[in-house]
Amino acid sequence: MAIAAEDVCLERVLPMDEGFALEEVVPETGLPTLGSDVTFQIVSPDANLLVQLPFGSQTQTFLREVRKCCGAGVVGKEDCPPEGETWPGSSKGQSVAGGAPRPSKLHREGTSDALVSSKTLDRRGSTLRSQLLQKEDLYTFLCCFKFFVGSYNVNGQSPQESLLPWLSHDPEPPDVYCVGFQALDPSREAAVFHDTPREEEWFKAVTKSLHPGAKYATIKLVRRVGILLLLCVRRELAANISDVGIATVGSLVGMGDKGAVAIHFRFHSTTICMVNAHLAAHPQESEQQNQDFHDICARLQFYQQDPSLPAIPLSQHDVIVWLGDLNYRLEEQDIERVKKLIDAQDICALYQYDQLKNQMEAKRVFEDFTEGEINFQPTYKYKAGSDEWDTSERCCAFAWCDRILFKGKTISQLSYRSHMSLRNSDHKPVSAVFSIGVKVVDEQLYRKVFEETVSSLDKMENASIPSVTLSKREFFFRDVKFMQLQMEFFIICNGPIPCQFEFICKPHESSYCKPWLIAKPSKGFLLPDAEVTVELEVFVNKSTATHLNSGEDHLEDILVLHLDRGKDYFLSVSGNYLPSCFGSPIQALTHMRQPIQDMLPEAIRNLVSSYCPGTALLPCDTLICTSSKALIEHVAVFIQTLMPLWSGEDFFWDEKPLDIPKELWMMVDHLCRSACQQKDLFQQPGLRAEFPEIRDCLDTGTLDTFIGSSSSVAEALLLFLESLPEPVICYQLYDSSVERASSFVLSSQVVSMLPTCHKNVFRYLMAFLRELLQHSGKNHLDGNILASVFGPVLLRPPPGRPVPDPAEKQKAQQFIQQFLLLEGSSH
């Protein structure tokens, strides 16, 4: 969990006077652990402290600044006294963090510099890490540990029975537990407020049911809505766990409780990732589940403690275990036939109809993953509290929804089973036991390889300046569209000298590239004669589209590729962006009677750039008490400021603007005609492949109707509203809206202050949502659902504000509900 300002307090101040010293504590082996935290001893007349600082360039910068303040009092490992000697007043202390290196005698290696520059340390450290990693087999050996992995969809239930039959099924206790739950709490409150009592209930149930033959320590717990993942290890092994990180991924546009959570950690020298996923439920087809899997794989990444290091993607782990309710069903839909196969214990024949098995064999999903042999009956769907199948009319076909898959060279499965004795849910839990070979460092061999590598590096560094050749230096991205990724590639070929490269910021800029561009990798290390392929990605999203539409920005940038101890290379990136209604302001869209891509670029830029978001309004506390005349005058001034600021010839439109943007009308009209009765509208994500066709239809007007599902159109509508540079409820009215959310009368007064086009859009959307509520019996929608979906996109806090807390989100939702329920009842 990140440390925020409010988490830190000032307890004492140590003056950097003559008695102050900062000494690095070296491990007893005398060899540093690469990538580990650095331990320092602070010595002063009033204190003797042992502190731990994170590995990376920021720590080196901090130490360099301390040295500037107090000179020779700052001591790195090179500045320690000769072995057998100590600094005056120094003594051994106790580490403040578990697993930190133990303090030992300080030593000196004979250099006059108190601190080597952070740049030199980073370069040398990167080279050393790279070469030691290549030689890992020379100083490590495999040691096998037993991992228990379990998955349980609890269907929103509290634990009502012991989990011992599941978690302590085997006579021998495992070394590591990884336990995942799905559908922990399907309530809307859990999704909106990100809090649920079920988390604590199931956490206690798990910890009470861990194998009694060993003592366990909890390493990490992560939850997203109803998906929870817990990692526990034997207490005596906890010190060997490091670099623990978490990541969460939700379904597109944040709808529903589907998605995944993951825990990344290093066990000795092996990186392991556990992923707990709850994929979308589409019984008749598996395309949505396949898409969810690939989306999770692409988006899961773990940020390192050192912000200068790139995030770790899912693919860069030695071992991956994927568990959860994957919602793949049986292709055989005849329930009676399925029952006969189950009664006959012909699991092998039934397994031939399994969607996941067939999709994996077709190489469409879980490439390179393995699943153990399934010799147990389907884990879904049962009557809660029994072992009987659910034969109600609403029952879906039985299926192995709950699965555990794995990937890695050193992992093998020992068992794979379901646990019929647990009857709390309509699912049965599953578990698998794995033997995972973990790389353990042999200290003596490591010392030998380390010293040989350092000696080799010393010779290499005395050679010459590195140089590279680039396969391409100019890149043009043609016809870039909103939310459509384009990629170009080039190759960096290194010469005979080890080379560290990085794209660096240009003068007076805070990033090496513009926000619509990214280079992967943006930094790296190349061994002699090695090469790396760099991917340049251009992707225009809601945060960058407005500036491109208005002409404030263009698809033009210069990248500076810097070689450490070498020269800089300049790469030219350019392209053309096709304007889109996504990212255009409401005010401008109402003046466009033709598709945006049929308009002259100058006309589009004039319309979009003339919009002035965030114009000041009256203070919120005077909003209600202001006289009607003054209020009307103020609204007139406000609306005028949102109109184009030109006069004379520049004011080139004479026609009355549209009441609402035609693009908004097209999407809402399509949903009104085709999807009012569709089940779970705005709750199930659309297909990503259908969005480009919907966007092109809106931007070009080439089709009279949309191609694709109604769920995709609904998702496009939400994205359209979310990408507005000024939300429907203007930023200046956000605080007033939140404060007056409990009163329909006061909320209506806030709406009355909106510019005419924003007011029209708001009322039009409310009428549409009330129309959906007229069909709630079929579409299963209610005011709470619609308000929780549309509240965050219609009512957004001004830029620069922190993320709204749960109470503020509830008020935003309540504001929308006023117009869905109270206004609807008055008509």
**Tally of individual helices:** 24
Structural class: alpha+beta
The percentage helix is 25-40%
- Which overall shape is indicated by the principal axes computed on the Cα atoms? globular
Strand order within the widest sheet? 7-8-6-5-17-16
- As a whole number of angstroms, the C-alpha radius of gyration is 31 Å
What brief labels describe this structure?
five-stranded mixed beta sheet; 827 residues; 30% helix; single chain; six-stranded mixed beta sheet; 26 strands; alpha+beta; globular
What can you see in these coordinates?
With 827 residues, the chain is of the alpha+beta class. The protein is built from 24 helices and 26 strands. The strands form six sheets. It has a six-stranded mixed β-sheet. A five-stranded mixed β-sheet has the order 9-10-11-14-15. A five-stranded mixed β-sheet has the order 19-26-25-21-23, with helices on one face. Helix 1 packs antiparallel against helix 2 (118-134). The protein starts with 20 loop residues before the first strand and ends with a helix.
